[in-house]
Amino acid sequence: MSMTQETSSKTPAGALAARMMTMPLMISSLLVHAARHSGDTEIVSRRVEGDLHRYTYKDAELRSRKVAQAIERLGCGVGDRIGTLAWNGYRHFELYYGISGSQRVCHTINPRLFPEQIAWIVADAQDQVLCFELTFLPLVEKLAPHLTGVRHFVLLTDRAHMPAETKIPNLLCYEELVEAENGDYVWPEFDEHTAACICYTSGTTGNPKGAVYSHRSTVLHAWASALPDAMDCSASDSILPVVPMFHVNAWGLPYSAPLVGAKLVFPGPHLDGKSLHELFESEKVTFSAGVPTIWLGVINHMKQKGLRLSTLKRTVIGGSACPPAMMRTLENDYGLEVIHAWGMTELSPLGSLSKLKAKHRELPLEEQHRLLEKQGRSLYGIDMEIVGASGEPQPWDGHTTGDLLVRGHWVVSGYHGRDESPLQQIGGKAWFPTGDVASIDADGFMLITDRSKDVIKSGGEWISSIELENIAMAHPDVLEAAAIACHHPKWDERPLLVVVRKPGRELSREQVLDFYEGRIAKWQIPDDVVFVDEIPHTATGKMLKARLREMFREHRLPGV
Ligand code: AMP
User: At the fourth CATH level, which superfamily is domain 28-217?
Assistant: First the structure.
């Protein structure tokens, strides 16, 4: 059934009805558009199996229809959740469209989470099917007995790469499922507010929370993020998203690339400097996107081998603050335009990007740099406000700071399965509190100055300080412990644990660190431990993290 109507039926009584078509914003329409208008444009993927795979938007659209049919054959109904544990690649791309396009919900899972957390979010999302890549076979074998709600496990590979033996019951082969279908499938049109994807954020305390994006929010986000003052995507681009498809949908690039008909290049699991540089060059990549950490690897590799970037023109860097020195190196030594961006899982994720206005071209270079180093101006579709302690809006003068609030078409209004609203009412409007502290200047350039939420972001991945503290406090010799972010040149932030020993107890740094082994993912274990006599507290007994961060601002982590 087509939902295309000649006019909107929601015109209020007395108002003149417009005479325009109303078409629901469907994720499938992005791929259909690419297949019809850029049908021979390539999608190139480095596979887990090691080789390079290439096909076109036309092929991808057909295979996505087959995926939709295969999902139907597995008995999945409308609204069912299907989990993915996969890298950036064409099969994951087909799942994005096959799942959402057929009115199911694509739940992208971050494989870097601790296995218990993965099991928790699979249960919370109520995933019916779990599709995963060969890399994750040992992980899924371990998890499968705990994933009691999952009815089907699908390995994203062909028959030749299926394991001879596995502990996973009735493991299905993705290529066999796809090949069994004929593609005779018409993308359905339905209400654009229907859920399309779920992405969990572990950025705050407690259990991860699911942000549930709609078709409408996803398409609008893709549209806005392709604009010139955002990612500036076009049909002449070759786009390599380094940011993973399990991280807020690779910042929407698997949607904005087909929207404009750009070539897509997927790096698979190979995110080291050498592999990325090879793909940049061989696939004539013009635009890339990722967290600052990945660029360190690329810069090191290029420096060591005396290499250049012959086609790459610009890159969006976000997810963590981009160090100004990295911006300068990429610009001055490699001719790359760096676009600093800020966003959140709850914002699908793009909120702001730093691009100059015409008048700024007159400014001295240093002042231009200062603006470009900020997190930037908000996109149309996102509004921002900074507020004081009692919610009063703060001036946009470039130095007064406040809690950063946002509202917009691709901002969450709540979380999956939770009744409580995260929104704050200010000036008669609902706002989402970001947990970031920022200033905004008269031109709308936002600068993140601090974070009110209690988390540490290492190489673009969250580490819950509460979790680190709870583990430390379980040690019999620890009286109190606080985990804070400490600056690290490679990972941006790494956890530093501040510990008060119980009176009369001996406790070494090594003993504390050993205590984390097996209790938390290795990469989340603090880099260092410092002992203090007491931790500063607020009047209400909360640890004063801001004071601690200040006290240890100059602390040098081992090996730095
Ligand atoms: P996530 O939901 O994992 O995308 O994390 C969102 C959070 O990452 C934001 O609320 C910020 O605290 C942080 N963040 C994202 N981009 C930037 C940036 N460019 N500079 C500083 N912090 C950032």
Answer: ANL, N-terminal domain (3.40.50.12780)
Query: How far apart are the CA of 49 and the centre of ligand 1, in A?
Result: 32
CATH fold group of domain 456-551: GMP Synthetase; Chain A, domain 3 (3.30.300)
Sign of the dihedral defined by the CA atoms of residues 443, 447, 452, 453, in that order: positive
Residue 499 host element (H or E): strand 492-501
Q: Enumerate the domain spans of the chain.
A: 28-217, 456-551
Give the H/E segment covering residue 122.
Answer: helix 115-125
Q: Which atom of ligand 1 is nearest to the CA of 349?
A: 4
Judge if 28-217 and 456-551 fold alike in CATH terms. no
How many C-beta atoms lie closer than 10 Å to residue 490's C-beta? 13
Residues 468 and 472: their CA atoms lie apart, in Å, by 6
Tens-digit pLDDT profile for residues 3-43: 556 545 678 899 999 999 999 999 999 999 999 999 999 99
Model pTM score: 0.89
State residue 1's pLDDT score. Answer: 47
Please give the structure tokens belonging to residue 548: 């601690």
Q: What is the largest CA-CA distance in the chain?
A: 80
* Ligand 1 pocket, mutate which of 344, 352, 487 (most atoms under 8 A from CB): 344
Catalytic residues: 201, 346, 457, 462
SS3 290: strand
436 Cβ inside 6 Å of ligand 1: yes
405 C-alpha vs ligand 1 centroid, how far in Å?
Answer: 13
State how far Cα 69 lies from the chain centre.
28
pLDDT tens column, 463-485: 888 789 889 988 999 988 999 99
**Is there an atom of ligand 1 within 6 Å of 106 CB?**
no
- Could you list the beta-strand ranges (E) of 109-231: 127-132, 152-155, 172-173, 195-201, 209-214
